[in-house]
Amino acid sequence: MANGSPMMAELECRRKPITWILAVTCLCTVSYLLGAWQNTSNALNSNVITSDESNKIGCAHTSPSFGSHSLDFQAHHQVGLNESLLSSVKFPACALKYSEYTPCQDPRRARKFPKDMLVYRERHCPAKNELLRCLIPAPPKYKNPLKWPQSRDYSWYDNIPHRELSIEKAVQNWIQVEGDRFHFPGGGTMFPRGADAYIDDIGALISLTDGSIRTALDTGCGVSAKYSQGVASWGAYLLKRDILAMSFAPRDSHEAQVQFALERGVPAMIGVMASDRIPYPARSFDMAHCSRCLIPWQQYDGLYLLEVDRVLRPGGYWILSGPPINWKVHYRGWERTAEDLKHEQDSIEDLAKRLCWKKVIEKGDLAVWQKPINHIECVESRMVYKTPHICKNNNPDSAWYRKMEVCITPLPEVNSVEEIAGGAVEKWPGRAFALPPRISRGTITGITLKTFEEDNKMWKERLEHYKRIIKPLANGRFRNVMDMNARLGGLAAELMKYSVWVMNVMPVDHKQDTLGVIYERGFIGTYHDWCEAFSTYPRTYDLIHADGVFSIYQDRCDITYILLEMDRILRPEGTVIFRDSVEILVKIQSLTDGMRWKSRIMDHESGPFNPEKIMVAVKTYWTGEPSPAQ
Ligand SMILES: C[S@@+](CC[C@H](N)C(=O)[O-])C[C@H]1O[C@@H](n2cnc3c(N)ncnc32)[C@H](O)[C@@H]1O
Description:
Helix 9 (303-311) links the parallel strand 7 (285-291) and strand 8 (312-321). The longest helix is centred in the first third of the chain and has 40 residues, at 6-45. The N and C termini lie far apart (100 Å). The chain has helices spanning 6-45, 83-86, 107-110, 150-153, 163-166, 194-203, 233-238, 257-263, 303-311, 327-330, 338-354, 376-380, 437-440, 449-469, 490-494, 515-520, 549-553, 559-569, 582-593; strands at residues 154-156, 176-178, 181-183, 215-219, 244-249, 268-270, 285-291, 312-321, 358-363, 366-370, 389-390, 407-408, 480-483, 501-507, 525-528, 541-547, 570-581, 597-602, 612-619. It is built from 19 helices and 19 strands. By secondary structure, it is α/β, with parallel strands linked by helices. Helix content is 28%, strand content 16%. The chain binds S-adenosylmethionine. S-adenosylmethionine is lined by residues 118, 219-224, 228-229, 249-250, 252, 257, 272-273, 291-295. S-adenosylmethionine binds next to loops.
């Protein structure tokens, strides 16, 4: 066919627009890539986040610092946001009387609830119309807490300025005021050689050093005026043995036990054995402990010991010291009759037997029991022990506003008496990266060995990136870390090399409940609903990681209150890492701007094509000011 044929002419005509479209597409792609490259390189090369506006509510301290890398994000992305969202609301400071406010454990609200079984000390959160829309102030003269490990023994008086501690109880052995500091000597009359020696005594009875015990629970970790070993000192001194304890005690109007623990950099949360299950999954703790914790173990048909049994790992230990243990020696000092204490001990021994626990040893002031590794014999023994029965139709892990029941939480089924129910966990530290039994057994839909390995790889990359963009991470500035949506605990595992501990939070309505996996890896955490306040005091976390939290909650409750809650629990100059879509991050930023936070949105570590973005924010330093009336 000749070139000038009508068919060729028609083909030519059709090709022209295609060529044009191709050329324009090419140009657009090149220009986008160039822009993206420029953006990424800017993000890694320019300077620190600067405070460009005056953010002082009270007295100024230092401005936030992120090291030498910028957290810049220039929008290549069209954000179709309503303009009104971007206009920032300025949140005022709450009155100074709220400086230790714990919304769901407010002693004034608590009074309305029954004293029976300590129900009044459980979580009772404010109704919508009672929520505070202001920022909880730090006390005047608040200082950044001392660094770990110094913080284990000392904290600033001005951060928890309780005059009653320094004056009336100045002679107490769990806390002493020395100039501008509190000193926690870690001793007491019950354990006169201190918490460290007390733990050595436990170590002489069960092995604390071979890596088989990693997660521990301290029930009633607080203090007594006279006999205590100090605020969460058990947890504090276990850390040097690589054992991670979750300590809890109720909010106390006088002795802010959990507040002191967290100020010291020791994991703790407000909690109580009352009528609800404690917020941890079944089979989580390798060891549980009570020293003079005053929990009535023998009462309510053994309800509280049944709850300890639920959260203990198969083969886990329960350690009891204080009344009634060694009552023959101590009954006079405890101002109780020998008969009364003997009866209490007999009841506990009988209950432990009916729970199928084995008494390992009782020596001096310590008694140790062990939970069976499976329930084969325990089920058979119900012919002998009619109570408690084995629970039926009950999700063992469900523990959010869930009432305790007088029954034994069943263990996963096994094929032989030697088999560990639910699978054995590896010894620490191998346990952190070994495949957790809950995953290897396929108990969590959609999570497999492959998912686990990919997750670990992803967290390695994320941490490399965080280290570059948040300098304080590597220099020991952070101690108490919270992961608001902890998934498989990948962040905690990657942070192992730093001197931090992580409170891994599992949002209660998450499709996949992986908190049990986190414990199997040897980390600690709790269930929580972020539409409510967390069970902690203000200013207790240095770093908060909010990964996809707001995607979960944006349709469930007003995100303003989640951010105000984060501001409450974050220490002045604390850092928050958000990961979410750019639309959500811009919305968050418009609110955090009004909370006196400094922030930058930037690209995902994998580059600008990833729709997930990162926002890093720092709460600026400010404190409340005493009003003349206060
Ligand atoms: C005497 S102190 C002992 C503190 C610590 N274990 C020690 O040895 O120093 C008792 C602690 O147990 C807490 N406690 C009492 N009843 C409790 C309960 N039902 N649940 C949790 N903690 C409780 C108290 O608030 C207090 O912190």
